[in-house]
Amino acid sequence: MKRTALAAITALTTVIGLTACGSHSDQPAQIVATTDVWGSVAAAVAGGHSNVKSILTSAVDDPHSYEASPSDAAAIADAALVVYNGGGYDHWADDVLASHKNVKTVNAYSLLPPAAPGAEPANEHVFYDMAVAKDVAHTIAEDLSTTDPTNAVAYRANAAEFGKQADAIADTERQIGQRHPGASVVATEPVAHYLLATAGVSDATPHGFATAAEDGHDPSPADLAAVLDLINGRHVSALVINKQTETAVTKQLRDAAAKAALPIVEVTETLPEGQDYLTWQRQTAEALAHQLDTAPGR
């Protein structure tokens, strides 16, 4: 797979003495998420009724290249529910689950609408898709309601509130395109693909550059020159940077954008410290809106 990391709905309390496979209301099920992104979604739904463990919680961990440790594999195998991204993004979870087919899972990528026959695989960064996040929350709530029916009302209410806030974020994203029709960007990586798509902001990144970034390679001189031309000539509205994977190339693009007074929008693949999923997504959308609103005329 190609390469490329809420205000709390309810208070998440510390749950003591849980077993990994508990399934009764007096012994809540343990949820294991591959990243803190999906762990945050699960925690929003679970409230204080189920324990949630996230395997990757650091911005320095790359979900694409990470390899599960023995303790990670044991946590996944013993979990009552595993929430993961799918689409090859956290392939190491697929590797573990292949040997533990009895483990219940929520695969976020699988909740995308079916692709058209012959179409290229969909972008794997589905955590920027509010509709997918809502579906993940709903699916978690239904699973927990089955294993812990005593708290079913709470799980479903939490998922509904999560969905309401996700819809509000999607509305904010759509308003960006309404205020800036024809806006376009170049991106160091296609991390924020679904944010841009919902906002109606086109990604003008040359295909060769985007492919090289996804594969973890340096772009060809021609592709780099094409991106620099878009930036230097202000032929796009902003530069989108995944600040967790900055390289000599991305620094060159950042410097060029600063010199051209082109707005720079930073995105991440994992939760910024102290933030939950909805706060992170809300602030990222607001940052894109702010940069486009305050940019000098092209």
What letter string, H or E per element, gives the SSE order? EHEHEHEHHEHEHHEHEH
Estimate nothing, just give the exact number of structural domains: 2
Structural class: alpha/beta
Report the CATH topology name of the largest domain.
Answer: Rossmann fold
Distance between the termini: 37 Å
Mind summarizing the main beta sheet? 4 strands, parallel
Give the integer mean of the pLDDT values: 89
- The proportion of residues forming helix, as a percent range, comes to 40-55%
CATH hierarchy: architecture of the largest domain:
3-Layer(aba) Sandwich
Folded structure, characterized:
Helix 4 packs antiparallel against helix 5, helix 5 crosses helix 6 (193-199) and helix 5 runs parallel beside helix 10. The chain contains ten helices and eight strands. Strands 2-1-3-4 form a four-stranded parallel beta sheet, sandwiched between helices. It has a four-stranded parallel beta sheet with strand order 6-5-7-8, with helices on both faces. With 298 residues, it is an alpha/beta fold.
Offer a concise description of the structure.
By secondary structure, the protein is α/β, with parallel strands linked by helices. It contains ten helices and eight strands.
Key descriptive features of the protein:
single chain; 298 residues; alpha/beta; Rossmann fold; four-stranded parallel beta sheet; 10 helices; 44% helix; 11% strand
